[in-house]
Amino acid sequence: MKFMGDIEISKIHESIGPVQEILDQHDGIVNVIDTTDGNVMISLEGGCTGCSSTPMTAMQIYYSLMKLEEVNDVVFVNGELPPFMRNFINQKIEAEEEINDD
């Protein structure tokens, strides 16, 4: 476990900044529901509801947040991130960490 505590919501929004700029153009909303113990619960709302790009948006958000030391996990409460995408990103982050360790 990387972190035990709450994460500032402003830090979450700062981390997903580039994605938020795109969401703003389409009335998409990233609703941070909870950050207890480094576990971030998010709901993608507004223009994201029913959008075919929502899984890709969730993937970008997940990738950005999982790189933060304070984040243990990111849960999309509406199931916007399919398990295979989560696994793909986790493998990518692990590979990046191995390269950085060398």
Describe the structure.
Helices cover 47% and strands 19% of the residues. It has a single domain (9-101), classed as GMP Synthetase, Chain A, domain 3, CATH 3.30.300. The radius of gyration is 13 Å and the shape is globular. It contains four helices and three strands, in the order ααββαβα. Strands 1-2-3 form a three-stranded mixed beta sheet, covered by helices on one side. It has 102 residues and is α+β, with helices and mostly antiparallel strands. The protein starts with 8 loop residues before the first helix and ends with a helix. Helix 3 (54-66) links the parallel strand 2 (39-46) and strand 3. Helix 3 packs parallel to helix 4.
Mean pLDDT: 88
Q: How many helical stretches?
A: 4
Provide the helix percentage.
Answer: 40-55%
Overall tally of domains: 1
CATH class: Alpha Beta
Structural class of the helices, strands and pairings? alpha+beta
Instruction: Tell how many strands the DSSP assignment holds.
Output: 3
CATH superfamily: Fe-S cluster assembly (FSCA)
Largest sheet: 3 strands, mixed
CATH topology: GMP Synthetase, Chain A, domain 3
Radius of gyration: 13 Å
CA(first)-CA(last) distance: 23 Å
Architecture (CATH level 2) name: 2-Layer Sandwich
Low-confidence stretches: none
Going across the biggest sheet, name each strand in turn: 1-2-3
**Which shape, going by the Cα principal axes?**
globular
Order of helices and strands: HHEEHEH
Strand content: 15-25%
